[in-house]
């Protein structure tokens, strides 16, 4: 009553043993593919973590640099500016991780929060009554009167270009892990499990436990079993090309590190622009929001403090170099895995599974 290992000679197998063999080959095939996938998956997961750590380091550095700008040059508003600064960098981090937000909304929300502080602490430092209604009016007016000139829009443009590639790379790496996980659990068809049993276990029914499959025979069986997985080859190659493109974009003119480290300077230029145009801004705000209560004799022009970079750049350079090196290592490794799905049958038939150094092997019917 054997269904798979039928042979003219006497056999030591039963139908129940064949069923056990089918369960065994399913389990073994999953384990074999998991073992092949392990290195690839380990590299991708490792680089997701490494990229994230290097990115967080850059982000912390950029945030500290921005905070120190307010503490050194704009002390009257430093305490109140801390929360908008923190929100801006949190939004940037969430954007990179794939959250449903945009760089533009994050940057403009920051400048909306910043304008009431700049107006009441630097342009008109004599304002004593800053009610919620007046603050909200200043926030809404920011969009119409554009107190920060082109600097706010420039910041959106620069950050959008550089952060887009990082966001896409982060999503692409997660997608790569998803693809690999899916291939590990691809169903083994009935025909495949029968073919694998015939190749690996039918010799045992003849007492031939040391005979292994012939190389060509193994390749034919594995290619048939892995046809659906091998179909991923074209898409996987395209995926590697996309990763290459994204890492090049990150390292090219839209450099993430340069954009993040330049945030403090964009904000400084924007605030200076607003201060220099203080009288015109005050006239417009008075028409739209009304005149708040003021102390006498305060001159806003005395508060203009041009600032030069005073923060040390060593931690930034280390994070920058670290991120560049990780990108280079990663893409070189991924390029070597370009043929991963095309060669999966060859890799499974390599090693202990087949007979390579002997003149005899199993061809599915007999020892040859």
UniProtKB/TrEMBL annotation:
- Gene Ontology biological process terms from the UniProt entry: cell migration; positive regulation of canonical Wnt signaling pathway; regulation of protein localization to membrane
The cross-references to InterPro entries, in alphabetical order and at most eight, read:
Glypican (IPR001863), Glypican_CS (IPR019803)
According to the UniProt record, one GO cellular component term is: extracellular region
Its topology with respect to the membrane?
Answer: Lipid-anchor; GPI-anchor
Q: What keywords is this UniProt entry annotated with?
A: Cell membrane, Glycoprotein, GPI-anchor, Heparan sulfate, Lipoprotein, Membrane, Proteoglycan, Signal
Q: Where in the cell is it found?
A: Cell membrane
Looking up Pfam families in the UniProt record yields: Glypican
Could you say which protein family the record assigns here? Belongs to the glypican family.
Say what the protein does: Cell surface proteoglycan.
This chain belongs to the protein called: GPC5 protein
The opening ranks of the lineage are: Eukaryota, Metazoa, Chordata, Craniata, Vertebrata
